[in-house]
Every structure is written in C-alpha cells, then in structure tokens.
Design a protein that fits this description.
Helices cover about 50% and strands about 10% of the residues. By secondary structure, it is α/β, with parallel strands linked by helices. It has 4 domains: about 210 residues, no CATH class; about 250 residues, Glycerol-3-phosphate (1)-acyltransferase (3-Layer(aba) Sandwich); about 180 residues, no CATH class; about 100 residues, Arc Repressor Mutant, subunit A (Orthogonal Bundle), CATH 1.10.10. Strands 8, 9, 10, 11, 12, 13, 14 and 15 form an 8-stranded mixed beta sheet that branches. Strands 1, 2, 3, 4, 5, 6 and 7 form a 7-stranded mixed beta sheet that branches. It has a 3-stranded antiparallel beta sheet with strand order 16-18-17. Strand 3 and strand 4 form a beta hairpin. GO terms for molecular function: glycerol-3-phosphate O-acyltransferase activity.
C-alpha cells in the first residue's frame, strides 16, 4: 500500500511540475496570517470542482506559500492520503463527465469524523480557482468555449482552457470554516449535517464566483433593445411623441440612439489588454500602488450589488480603481463617465473597459432621462457593480467637493423599485503624492478657462510619462448599506409601492444623508503621505519657509497628534520620519533648499506655494478639530473648558459640512473633549486645575506648535467672519443670499491679495454658498417673502465669538470694508 502511494505521489509530483512549465498563477489570501489559521488545528482545503489540474495547482500554491500541506492525510481513519476534498463529484463516462452537486466520499467521511469526535475541530479552507476570467460572450463561440465562466467544463474543454488561459490563472484562498461550529447543532443527524455544510460551501463558491467573474454578460444589442421594451421608456416615447407631434417610430429611434450612446460594452479581452497596458503605465508614472482594506470589497461583493464611490482627483482614478480590483480578483465595475470622454479612439476603449456615458445635464430631456434611469435600474437588478463620482467633477483644490445628488438619487430610486438585491456603497480614497493634472489645475485656479478633453490633449499629456508622480494609495473605506440609511431616514420605506416616476417626500432627506455619509467615509479613509505632512507645516508659516531641523521636528510632532487620537481605522499614515519626508519632497521638486551656515532653510517657491495647498487640503480635515481648539487661544491666554467645548461646538456643524468630518453633531462634544486632553498631554495646552485651560508661555516651543496648529483651520474661520461681517453691515432683511455670496467672495479675494494668501479655496464662491445655506438650515438666518436674509440677536453673538480667533490686522481689514465698529 505504501509502495502504491509512493508511486502515485511521485507521478502526481511529475504531473505538477509539467503543468507549471506552462501555467502562471495570480494568488490572493495564501498566507497563515491572511487566513487566520490556528497552528494547533488540522487544515483541510476544499475545491469546488473535481479536477486533476485544480488539485495540482492547489498543491503547488500550498507548497509555495508554506501552508499546511494539501498532500498530508485527512484526520480520518482509513481516509485518503491528502488533506483536501472536492465539493462536487464526477458522474458520467469518458469525455462527457460533468459535475453535479453530489457529496464526495471524502466529504462524507470528514463530516462523520466531526460528528464522532465532538471535541475535535478541522479548519476547512475554501479555495476558488479560475482559468482566466469571464469570457467576451458577444464576440465568438471560441472565446466562450475557452474561458472559465459560470458553466462547468468537461475534460476536453478543460484541457483547451488550460492551453489557452493557463498563463492567466487566478487562485483565491478564503477564510476557513470551523467544521465543529458548522455541524454542532446537527450531531444527531448525519444527513442534515452533510446538507448544511454543503449548502454553506455552495453558497460561498457562488458568491466568490460572482465577485470575481461578475454576473453573466448579456449581448449589448439585446440589452439596448430591452431598455426600449420597458414600461417606463414606452411611456416616455408616447409622451414625447404627443408633445412634439412626432411619429412614434421616429421618437423610438431617438430613444434607441440614446440607449446605444449610454450602454457599456464590457469586454474581458479589452480588460485583459488594459491590465497589461496599465501595469506598464503605472510602472512609468508611479513608484508603487499601496492598496489598503481590500477585504471590505471582497466581503461586500459576495452578497450585494456594489457601488464604488471614489473621490475624484484625477482622470487616473477610474483606471486605477478598475486595475486594483481586477488584480485583487474582483470584476471591474461599470463606470459612469462624462460624454466628453467619448472621444474617437479613446471612447470605444473606455466603453469596452466598462464605461457607460452620460450627458452632463438632461433635465430638459425627459426621454433621455428615462432611458438613462432604466439603464441604471437594469444594471442594479442584475447585480452589476457600478462606479461613479459623487463630486461630479475633479477637485481642483484637493478638498472633497460637495456631493451632487443626481446619481445617488437614481440609485436610491432604483433600489426602492426593486430591493431584492442589496446595494452597498464602498467609499474609496485615492491619494496621489502628485497628480498628473496639477499644472492645469493651477492655471484654472488662476482664472484660466478649463480645457476641453480631446485626443490631441491626451497626446500632449503623454509627455508626462517621463516624469515621476510618486506613490499612489487606494484605501477602501467602511461600507455603507443603503437599506440601513433608508431605515434611519424612513423606517416604513418597505411598505410603500414605487414605480419609475414615484419620488417619495422623504427622498431628498435620504439622498442628503447618504451623500454626507459617503463623503465622510471617503475622507475617513484618507492616505496621509509625506507631501501632505510637509505642505501642512510649511503653509502654516508666514513666509513659507523654515529651518530644516525645526520643520522635521514639527512634522514629527503633528504626525504624533494623528497617532494619539486616530481619526479612523481606515486611514493610513506615512512610513518614516519628518527627516525622510523632507528629503522625499525635495527629490520630487516640491520644496527648495537654501544652504545656510546656521542650518539649511526649506521653503516653497513660485507656483509650488500654491500647488502645495492642494496636498495640504487632502488632509486638512484630520487636523480640523484640534486646530479649531487651538485657534480659540489666538487672542485669549486661557478659557474655561466648557467655553472651549461650546465655541468649538458652535463652529463644528459648518466645518463638518465643509470638510465632511465623520462625527455626528451629537458626537462632536466628546471628540472636542478628547482633543483637549490630547493637546494637554502633548504640552500644547496647560490644564490649570480649576476647570480652565491655558496656552503655553509666549516664546516657547509649545506655543509655536499651538499657533502653527491654529493656522491649519484659521482661514476657514476667517471666511465665516467675512460673511457674518458683510451680513451685519447690510442689516437684517437688506441683502439676498446671492448678493451676500458675491460680496463675500470679493472681500475674500481682496484679503487674499493683501495678506499674500496662497490658498485658492479661500475665495471659492461655492464654499461661501455652502456656509450661507448651512446658516439657513440651522435657523441662524431666514429668508423672507422677498428673498432677503433676516436674522436676530443670535447672529451678533456668533459673530463676536468668531472674532476671538482673528488677528488684529485681519479684523481691521474686514472692518474697513464692512464699516463695523471694533
């Protein structure tokens, strides 16, 4: 018997070595730490389909990763000489063998062992294996035959698949199941225990397959024609025909053109091609791509329709995200792209990569709006993953832009119509050390007209391939279940009946809450990098320059603040120390060095002073609360702790709305108190023991750090005071919101010139608009029947409190324009 097993093992080893002369694998989860394996408990691997090639691949990857061996024996008396089993056994004869969900003998033996030995456990590790990915169904039957799909291949087809796709094999090890826990409740019924474990494994493999391959792809033409047969589109065609007095056939043809213009044509052949091209591109542009919290996506993709909602900083965003997902064994999403990207040559490639195109505005085109809504609804009900940018466009300032409700509203309305497939939003923070478009952003911030995307512009930007843009981080944030948001906003939402046109009265509240939560979770996943830290410190100085040793020390100290009270578990901090970060920024050409005998001076020169505000703004929200507390000591040597919490709490809702902070208004008080404790522990504030807190003595290093910290947020508070000052100048009921916004922008621009402020967002009109809208929401100001803003005595108190943080020079500058008394 041993001789037979030895010969058999030798033959299998020979087959495995021959197979891997051709096969190349991409593997995930293949480590003891990733799987969380207990060293004292036996390990057993389970594969979905019975196949010699699958077994050989499993053994090879187990050996490579030094995992507990798949070639060791199962802990079963008279059992097989290997520690794995197939879930589906083979039936049939010769080349017509197929897989059926019939338990294998090894499977039954393992369950019986678990029932007979209740004190013992076995770790069952499901392993999914894909020879290539999902096929391009709409191109040829050959590709359908020779790709790994939802269908099960016979032996001859499997051989051809290995020959064609063996060099693109993906293996995924998944979190182990505890045999003891699974079968514990059925210890008196072996058959029920068998069924339960089999059901869990079948469900697991199905979810992984859907996450990796995506739902079955339909023929694009069939999808487009199907949209025109939906009741909503038929009704829209009838209404448009009657309104325009046009023949229904002509309107239907227009609806078809709309659907054809919108629909993606995802091709896995194109995705594979793009994988190779993008891998080369990233190696040329970046020094590495760091991916964090990918397990959030893998867990979400198995049970839900996933909507990826990244921040939008660069045209590289959607390419990076699709690439990262594909490399981690997940199907790239369908991506909402602006119609401006549907350019010659580029548009067809993007469409085959999963992009579907949308017009910038279709409010005045109900037929187009209906077709687009129905397309979205079909995508969600079929379980496709989607991606869109809630900000609408790219951020030119480095801050998170105010979310636009359009796509979120469509998603919510689609889910209300059919919520059998749960929808989960996965926020994604994509952090660049340098964005490719930084120079064009700089021009636009200085008033230059935004350039329209074109093939020639794309060719021009190709010159950037010789430059280095540092590292990129792709951080996945905490998932948001749409049903949970709806439960909080309207717990009876499941009791209503919805159709394509119905918009419940509470829809806008649900979309607003969802928007805020998405933006906050994106910011909570921020990747702090060396450039963000150094820019934050340097931009806090008056002359944008600092002694190198002092800069290094302050960068390390502010990084320690972030570690002392971490903003979120999903954020990441840079490796190294302040000295490493300064050297790195210098190598990237973002800071200048001026040698000096008493110590080198590091500074920002020319356009870099403005460019670095972009990277400072990426992480400004992390310092918002401690900086707000620090700013209260700008003109006060000490304050009662309760007064600090109150004043910071008054400003918090406005700062939260602008920077998308994660704390709910009710949680802000605790967070402010915790930050006071941290600042006291770090020596930036002094506890006086009588309920008061004081700033350090003037001229000390601690006072320098406190004052520098306050400058991280001071410009935001100054903008608020500008608006309040102008409003009080005119008086209650004397100015409209639009006029106040315009006057505030002009005064901020003037102060920017007078005080040499390099932050373009200081006079960003949208920030003033948001602040005014929030004051209306919070009841600080109201609007009368003539559209004029009215306020009471409470506004004067808020304005007086805001002046606590302003320097004398800036108070005078505002007073000169607003003609307010000191």
């Amino acid at each position: 018997m041993r001789l037979y097993q030895g010969i058999r093992s030798l033959i299998l080893t020979l087959f495995r070595k021959i197979l891997f002369l051709w096969v190349r694998t991409d593997v995930s989860g293949n480590s003891v730490d990733a799987l969380g394996l207990s060293p004292d408990t036996p390990v057993c691997y389970v594969l979905q389909y019975s196949s010699l090639s699958n077994r050989l691949v499993l053994e090879q990857e187990v050996i490579r990763a030094q995992l507990p061996g798949a070639s060791t024996s199962l802990p079963v008396k008279n059992g097989p000489s290997h520690s794995f089993f197939f879930l589906y056994r083979r039936v049939g004869k010769s080349l017509r063998i197929r897989q059926t969900p019939r338990p294998t003998p090894e499977y039954r033996m393992l369950v019986r062992y678990g029932l007979e030995h209740p004190e013992k456990d076995v770790q069952i590790v499901p392993v999914s294996l894909f020879w290539g990915r999902s096929p391009d169904k709409e191109k040829s039957l050959v590709k359908l035959l020779l790709s790994d799909t939802w269908s099960v291949a016979g032996r001859l087809q499997k051989l051809l698949i290995i020959l064609v796709h063996g060099r693109n094999t993906y293996v995924q090890f998944n979190t182990p199941l505890s045999l003891k826990q699974v079968i514990d409740e059925y210890r008196h019924s072996e058959e029920r225990a068998n069924r339960k474990l089999a059901r869990i494994l079948r469900t697991h493999f199905r979810k992984v397959r859907q996450a990796v391959l995506g739902p079955d792809l339909s023929h694009r033409r069939t999808l487009v024609e199907g949209l025109l047969r939906t009741q909503a589109v038929k009704e829209a065609i009838r209404e448009t025909s009657a309104k325009e007095d046009a023949p229904p056939e002509k309107v239907r043809a227009r609806a078809y053109r709309y659907a054809d213009e919108i629909a993606a044509s995802m091709s896995i052949v194109t995705i594979r091609f793009l994988e190779v091209v993008l891998a080369w591109l990233w190696n040329r542009l970046y020094k590495g791509i760091a991916v964090n919290n990918i397990n959030v996506v893998k867990e979400s993709a198995q049970d839900n329709a996933v909507v990826y909602v990244p921040c939008h900083r660069s045209h590289m965003d959607y390419l990076l995200l699709s690439y990262v997902l594909y490399k981690n064994g997940l199907m790239p999403p369908h991506i909402a792209a602006g119609i401006n990207l549907n350019m010659p040559l580029v548009g067809p490639i993007l469409r085959r990569g999963g992009a579907f195109f949308m017009r910038r505005s279709f409010r005045d085109n109900p037929l187009y709006a209906t077709v687009f809504n129905e397309y979205m609804h079909v995508m969600f009900t079929r379980g496709y993953s989607m991606e869109y940018f809630v900000e609408g466009g790219r951020s030119r300032t480095g801050r998170m832009l105010q979310p636009r409700p359009g796509m979120l509203s469509m998603t919510v309305r689609s889910f209300l119509r059919d919520h059998r497939k749960p929808i989960v939003f996965v926020p994604v923070y994509i952090g660049y050390e340098k964005v490719m478009e930084e120079r064009s952003y700089l021009g636009e911030l200085r008033g230059k007209k935004k350039q329209k995307e074109s093939v020639f512009g794309l060719a021009k930007s190709a010159r950037s391939l010789s430059s280095s843009f540092g590292k990129v981080a792709v951080n996945f944030g905490e998932a948001i279940h749409l049903s949970d948001v709806l439960d909080e906003v309207q717990d009876s939402w499941r009791d209503e009946a919805y159709d394509a046109e119905y918009r419940p009265a509470w829809l806008s509240r649900a979309v607003s809450e969802l928007s805020l939560r998405v933006a906050s979770n994106i910011n909570a996943s921020v990747a702090v990098n060396p450039i963000g830290m150094i820019s934050t410190v340097l931009l806090g100085t008056e002359r944008l320059a600092m002694d190198e040793n002092q800069l290094v020390r302050l960068a390390d100290q502010y990084a320690d603040l972030l570690k002392a009270f971490p903003y979120a578990d999903t954020m990441t901090l840079p490796e190294g120390s302040g000295k490493d970060w300064v050297t790195y920024c210098e190598s990237m050409g973002l800071v200048s060095r001026q040698p000096q005998k008493l110590g080198d001076i590091i500074g920002l020169e020319g356009s870099n002073a403005t460019l670095m505000t972009y990277y400072r703004n990426n992480i400004q929200h992390l310092f918002a609360l401690p900086a707000l507390v620090a700013s209260l000591f700008e003109n006060k040597s000490s304050l009662a702790r309760e007064r600090i919490v109150f004043l910071a709490g008054v400003a918090y809702p406005y700062i939260r709305s602008e920077l998308f902070l994660k704390y709910q208004p009710g949680e802000a008080k605790d967070a402010i108190n915790q930050w006071i404790d941290v600042l006291v522990n770090k020596g930036l504030l002094v506890s006086m023991g009588n309920g008061r807190v004081a700033r350090p003595e003037e001229g000390t290093d601690a006072m320098l750090r406190l004052r520098m910290l306050s400058r991280f947020i001071i410009q935001t508070v100054e903008r608020y005071h500008i608006t309040l000052g102008i409003l009080r100048k005119y008086g209650s009921g004397r100015i409209t919101a639009e006029e106040l916004e315009e006057q505030s922008t002009l005064l901020a621009e003037r102060m920017s010139i007078l005080f040499g402020l390099n932050a373009p967002e200081f006079f960003d009109k949208t920030l003033f608009r948001n602040f005014i809208a929030n004051m209306q929401t919070n009841g600080v100001i109201t609007t009368d029947d003539n559209g004029l803003l009215c306020y009471g005595e409470g506004l004067d108190e808020v304005a007086d409190d805001a002046r606590l943080v302003l320097s004398v020079e800036k108070r005078q500058a505002i007073q000169q324009v607003t003609m307010l008394g000191a």
